[in-house]
Amino acid sequence: MKTISYLTLVLVVLVATILPLGGTVAKAKGPERYDMTWNYGGLSDVFEGSTFRPGATFTVRLGVTNQGNFTWNAKDHQHPHHIHLSYRWYDHKGNLVQRDGLRSHFPRDVAPGVKLHHFFDPVEVTVKVPKSGFPPAGPGPYDYNAMICFDLVREGVTWFSWVGASPLCFSTKVEKAPEPPRYSAVYNDHNSTPSIMAAGSKASFNFGVQNTGAATWNRGGSNPVHISYHWYDRRGRVVVWDGLRTKLPKDVAPGEGSGTFTITIKAPSTPGTYIIKYDMVKEGVTWFSWVGSPMRVRQVVVR
Questions:
Q1: What is the chain's alpha carbon radius of gyration, rounded to the nearest angstrom?
Q2: Among residues 141, 147, 140, 46, which one has the least CA distance to residue 91?
Q3: 156-214 per-position pLDDT tens digit
Q4: pLDDT tens-digit readout, 99-109
Q5: Going from the N-terminus, what domains does the chain have, and what CATH number goes with each?
């Protein structure tokens, strides 16, 4: 009986060693160690031989080995060891262009010492190129103007490279960002344009507009920027070109919004079904639609 008890004890110890208490997720022994090694095939040739468009999105396959002392949880966002693979963008001098890249999940949990192979069980990483922030690239094949660094991140705690792990970095080229048009706008009528109006009547409602161009919209001065509209019939013929003007509540710089203000429109004098197209105008210079800015379109029945 003593011999059986001894063997039983040995088996219990062996099982406890192979399967740690709390499930199959390995817990860190001592301080948690954040470390990894990478495998990536010919990915360096892809980055170093390519020139990417600003704003472009593409997917790469990466492999990584857990050289730490705890399991990286793949899918449970509430798990304390939930880890993502992400990236940061820099210019060629090492200046940070984008800190937080898109996050990618592991295909499965990754225990210490386990390797995810870039071909057989890779991490599918979606990469988005910043729209701006890079200087012009030089003419030579190695005149890079950008660098991307892949890294692991434990959300709310740390990037692995911040505590000593080595990120995976590639030099590459990013095209010069296209210049934004001088006059461009995005309109928001808050779905308040009336669908039915009496002939010749007026309606006032909330409106907003965002400056997506390169020039500041001046509210006053000799050539102010106003919001207006055009009326078209169902065949696309202009019925009223010069709609009522509405002043902006403030000057609006590039990239900024006007905030919500009140616009007033006046219906055509003849009953029918019409299309209203909202348009900005820099008085004495141009309608924004004339230089390629899309208009906001709504249908209105006039009775």
A1: 30
A2: 147
A3: 899 999 999 999 999 999 998 888 899 999 999 999 999 999 999 999 999 999 999 99
A4: 999 999 999 99
A5: 32-174 (2.60.40), 185-302 (2.60.40.10)
Return the percentage of the chain with pLDDT > 70, whole number: 90
pTM for the full model?
A: 0.60
**C-alpha pair distances (Å), 128 with each of 56, 120, 241:** 6, 24, 41
User: What residues contact 88, with CB distance under 8 A and at least 6 apart?
Assistant: 96, 98, 99, 100, 101, 148, 149, 151, 167
Which amino acid, 271? P
Q: Which backbone phi and psi does 94 adopt, to 5 degrees?
A: 90, 5
Closest CA to 270 of 201, 194, 204: 201
The first and second tokens of residue 201, run together, are 């009547």
**Cβ distance 125 to 168 under 8 Å?**
no
Taking a C-beta distance cutoff of 8 angstroms, is the pair 177, 132 a contact?
yes
Name the CA dihedral angle for 123, 127, 133, 136, rounded to a multiple of 10 degrees.
Answer: 100
**For residue 30, what pLDDT is reported?**
64
Q: Give Cα separations from 292 to 5, 62, 86, 171, 279 (angstroms).
A: 86, 41, 37, 36, 11
User: Who wins on pLDDT, 159 or 139?
Assistant: 159
